[in-house]
Amino acid sequence: QVMLAESGGGSVPAGDSLSLSCTFSGRPFTNYAMAWFRQAPGKEREFVATISRNGRRTLYSDFVRGRFIISRDNAQNTVGLQMNSLKPEDTAVYYCAAGAYYTDGDKPAHYNYWGQGTQVTVST
């Protein structure tokens, strides 16, 4: 059974940076593409970024491209999300996801396993 655990959320003013991390366990990490999604109150869960199994391919949503960077460490079984130039509209619960079957998956249905989420709040 795959387990995902996010960390690194918090509250920051607009323009600041935050770094999220997700630890993967339970199966071979390199069998899974990894992604970050987010969900704001009253809104659907939306795609943020994904990274391929070997880490060579990444895909970002339009609203974070150029500000966020997804990375993975296949030796440590972790995936990270470096968030820069944060905006109030980035406020949401951020979820780590693992998927065995898709590359460049940008929908929740493309992922088999989810973490519990970590809150990110950006104030004006």
Would you give an account of this structure?
- With about 120 residues, this protein is an all-beta fold.
- About 0% of the residues lie in helices and about 50% in strands.
- It contains no helices and eleven strands.
- The strands form two sheets. Strands 2, 4, 5, 6, 9, 10 and 11 form a seven-stranded mixed sheet that branches.
- It is globular.
- The chain starts with a strand and ends with a strand.
SSE arrangement:
Layout: E1 3-7, E2 10-13, E3 18-25, E4 33-39, E5 46-51, E6 58-60, E7 68-73, E8 78-83, E9 92-99, E10 113-114, E11 118-123
Parallel strand pairs: 2-11
Antiparallel strand pairs: 1-3, 3-8, 4-5, 4-9, 5-6, 7-8, 9-10, 9-11
Primary descriptors:
single chain; mainly beta; seven-stranded mixed β-sheet; four-stranded antiparallel β-sheet; globular
Q: Percent of residues in helical segments?
A: under 10%
- Which secondary-structure class do the elements indicate? mainly beta
The backbone outline, from C-alpha atoms, is globular
Order of helices and strands: EEEEEEEEEEE
**Mean pLDDT score, rounded?**
97
Main pleated-sheet profile: 7 strands, mixed
The rounded distance between the terminal residues' Cα atoms is: 40 Å
